[in-house]
Request: fold
Amino acid sequence: MSDDAPTPAASSTDSPPPRRRSRRRVVVWTSLCLAAALIACLGTAYVYYRSLRANMVHHDLTALLPEEERPPKIGDAVNILFIGSDGREGGNAAYGGRDFVGERSDSLLLAHISPDNGVIVVSFPRDSLVNLPDCDPYGETEGTYGYYGMINAALFHGGPPCVVKTIESLTQIRVDHFVHLSFVGFREMVDSIGGVEMCIPEPMHDQRAKLDLEAGTQVLDGEQALAFVRARYEIGDGGDLGRIDRQQMFLGALASQVLSSRVLANPVKLNALLDSVTRYTATDAELTLDTMLSIGFTLSDVEPRNITFYTVPSWPAPWDPNRVVWNEEKAARLFHAINEDEPVDDALLETGRPQAEPSPSADLTPSYPAEPSTDPSVHHEPVPSATPHDAIEGRDATANPCVNGLGLGTETTGTQGW
Reply:
């Protein structure tokens, strides 16, 4: 072959130049490192997720409450029943009543979370006299036959399932989930977000609740917040309705703070809140951490003005000033609006003090005893309503106690013991 012959073209299978090989190696190693980092992050997130789930105590409502005996599920809204327990076991013993047997609902609220109409929260006075249903024994409880008595006794008789059954039977609203919260749990949740800022219009002191607040804007820590929502006997008229008003104002301030960037955009506070929620609450089996996060995502778009609080309309019982009976007609309208996921169109939304309900006739007497009857066959009709179609009072979560007052029962001129 001649020395002048042309040099053959380079084959396409020849190795790339050293610089290209080096660049490709860097890309491969970078991808592997990113993949490893992603797997590590996912693994850490999974471990964190599992640790939160492990904290939670679940009760299987599906197995305990027959479907055919429950109200039907209507629409896409979610109804969550919050049961604040007055049990004194464990750390709760620090709040008095060491000889207290069992537990009753110290507060009872139903939150209706609607994708279209915001949030409605209904408080049920713990002193309400209602028809309690039959409840099976559950845990350490003994169960009960149906009788006419205080609504807060349902927890004592049959635990959270009995409370759910009671609320469903009284309202015909399907309870999708429940949250059972102790004193310690409430305290820890408030502390987890650094306390809740409120304006207190006047000095408030209640020795039994260990409440000692001066007037002015201040941040309530967990102990102070718990004392504020529990205080009753030495503030205002000493009634439960006044205490509910104060609870609603605190919950409005709490909701405003949790929904703000101060909590949702703060990883430390959000982690502490999730940890306290899962550690100190019991729920139904279907309210998993996944469901909680989904509900939280829905709530992230809710404005405080779209969170409305109501109390079941009631009168003082004419035969017992320490108890209340529901205004059946107004309560039915409120429950119907919630069940149909409709706004309470006739509501009188006040940020100030609601007007007191007119009392029913003093001639009315209970149609069956306020205490449990020894005869399980006793059955009577409830006390009839005697109220015209007036508006249902409510307030939204923007209410400011220093501007709007602390609500019903603040003065000492009301009926003692409500």
About this structure: Confidence is low (pLDDT under 50) at residues 90-96, 352-358, 361-388, 411-418. The radius of gyration is 28 Å. The first strand starts at residue 57 and ends at 59. The chain has eleven helices and 17 strands.
